[in-house]
Amino acid sequence: PSKPQNLTVLDVTATSITMSWHPPKNQNGAIAGYHVYHIHENQTGVEIVKRSAADSAIRFELPKLKPFTEYRIKVNAFTTKNEGESSDIIVQRTDVGVPSAPIIVNLTCHSQDSLTIRWKRPLEFYNNIDFYIIKTKIMGQDTHRDIRINASAKELETAMIIQNLTMYQLYEVKVAAATYSVIVPKKIILGKFSEGRKIGLQPNCEKIQPLLRQSHNDYNLAVLVGIIFSCFGIVLIVMAFFLWR
């Protein structure tokens, strides 16, 4: 068969490309179907589309693709005996995928009505990270507050102070990254939210936290010293046992 005609992209997502084409002008036999070749990074995949020559137009979704990846696509009709000429090649990049969840590395009281949060960039993202959504919620309530800040994938860590909170409340805080679609203008691809971290606000909490950390460090030091002296005592007992034999 001669080459399929009018190969056209109809729709693109992060993991699929939907296209259409028309049958060859010269069929040279009964069309049994089409081979759809997709090439990226020197790797070639092929999908088989079973269609008859009576179809005036063929529509097909190419699935299981990689996000934000450029594909070169061509279509060949085939009969029971031969494969025909290749269609004109189209080049299409898939859309960006969903970013993975950021990792909150620090959440501390800044004052009685504000907190400080720091998080690491998502391990998986595509093209860029355009902004973050910080979600704060008072435990036991259904409503939440979303804060949006601009971002860049070049920043490995991001920190901010969240203000105008309510004293004597326990808050849960989550963070998600977001990226603009490269296919649909202004469409937002929102990533997965981080695991929620909880913190309570009260007067002088910014002063209490260092004291708690110091107490914890002192406790750890005392435990370590105790272990060292215990080990030293065991060594002395063993040495005394062998000396008295």
CATH fold name of the largest domain, please? Answer: Immunoglobulin-like
Mean pLDDT: 88
Helix content: 10-25%
Over the alpha carbons, how many angstroms does the gyration radius reach? 31 Å
Percentage beta strand: 35-45%
Distance between the termini: 99 Å
Total domains: 2
Question: What oligomeric arrangement do these chains adopt?
Answer: single chain
Got a strand count? 16
Low-confidence stretches: 211-219
Order of helices and strands: EEEEEEEEEEEEEEEEH
**Number of helices in the DSSP assignment:** 1
What structural class do the secondary elements suggest? alpha+beta
Please, could you describe this protein's structure?
This is Fibronectin type-III domain-containing protein. It comes from Musca domestica (House fly). The longest helix has 39 residues. A hairpin with a 4-residue loop joins strand 1 and strand 2. Strands 3, 4, 6, 7 and 8 form a five-stranded antiparallel β-sheet that branches. With 245 residues, the protein is an alpha+beta fold. About 4% of the residues have low confidence. The chain is elongated and about 95 Å long. It starts with a strand and ends with a helix.
